[in-house]
Amino acid sequence: MPIPSAILTLVLGMILVLGGLWIGQNVNLLPVDASVNAPIYDELFRVLFSIGTILFVGIVGVVVFSLVRFRRKPGQIGDGIALEGNLPLEIFWTAVPAIVVLFVGLFSYDIYERMGGMVPLSHGGHGDSQASEERVWGGIGTAGAMQASSDMAISPLPVEVTAMQFAFLFHYPDGDIISGELHVPSGRPISLKMEAKDVIHAFWVPEFRLKQDIIPGQPTLLNFTPTRPGRYPVVCAELCGPYHGGMRSTVVVESADDYDAWFQANRKLPVSEA
């Protein structure tokens, strides 16, 4: 006795959905997570990866099945059957994408809010009188890092970032240090105040799951809390000129003791101490 097509379709659909969910939750295509925000972002990626896998396998499967099942048979010379429409099918392929898009939109908003994108900007660590008069933009992660710092009673480490063709420069106001690498202690909130000197650049650290455009004339804050010691690439992710591909730096996440040793070895001593 042949299996009814409705039951077969239901079983295949369940296998497809369960398989897509398993792949999305167990196949990791992302680099190591090295900041507080990374696991939050990874939740969204796993959901999108699951949905994408289900749609890709399902659509390709239907196309391949149609090519085989409805191919022109030897001796057939006429046109195919003229179909006027299928209301249940049209409702299905309209309702399902609408539900998926609505779910992804709401879930993305929740992720963005949890990463600090919807909380009013706080200057934290860069609040001098001149900065309070200029318009400073807050990147994603700003409020989240500030909340973490207040919860842990740890003041954020302020770093001024200058982006130019084709390099990043990092200035530590506390020690008047200028470095080509970003050195930060693990577990402490970091507050970057970023400015571009020429064209649009972007500060992107894949392991932190953070990317922020840096626009000339528009100072921008980007806060994060590193969690895993190591060396991670800083990449400019906006086309900024002929050597854009070479505009890279490194963020060095160190233990508190190693960072203090680096800071003391590189800071400029006051004249009275020199």
- The CATH homologous superfamily of the largest domain is called Cupredoxins -  blue copper proteins
Tell me the fraction of residues in β-strands, as a range: 15-25%
Structural class: alpha/beta
Structural Rg: 26 Å
Low-confidence stretches: 127-133
User: Main sheet, how many strands, which sense, barrel?
Assistant: 6 strands, mixed
| Overall CATH architecture of the largest domain | Sandwich
Number of domain modules: 2
| SSE string, helices as H and strands as E | HHHHEHEEEEEEEEEEH
Binned, the helix content reads 25-40%
Described by the principal axes of the CA atoms, the overall outline is elongated
Q: State the separation between the terminal residues, measured CA to CA.
A: 94 Å
Report the mean per-residue pLDDT as an integer: 85
Strand order of the largest sheet: 1-9-6-2-3-4
- The name CATH uses for the topology of the largest domain is Immunoglobulin-like
Number of strands: 11
Multimeric state:
single chain
Highest CATH level, the class of the largest domain: Mainly Beta
What's the number of helices?
A: 6
Structure description:
The protein is of the alpha/beta class and 274 residues long. The protein has helices at residues 5-26, 38-69, 87-114, 129-133, 142-152, 256-266, and strands at 137-138, 157-164, 167-172, 177-179, 182-185, 190-196, 201-205, 210-214, 220-224, 230-235, 248-254. The strands form 3 sheets. It has a 6-stranded mixed β-sheet. The chain has a 3-stranded mixed β-sheet with strand order 5-11-10. Helix 1 (5-26) packs antiparallel against helix 2. The longest helix is centred in the N-terminal third of the chain and has 32 residues, at 38-69. The chain is elongated, with a radius of gyration of 26 Å.
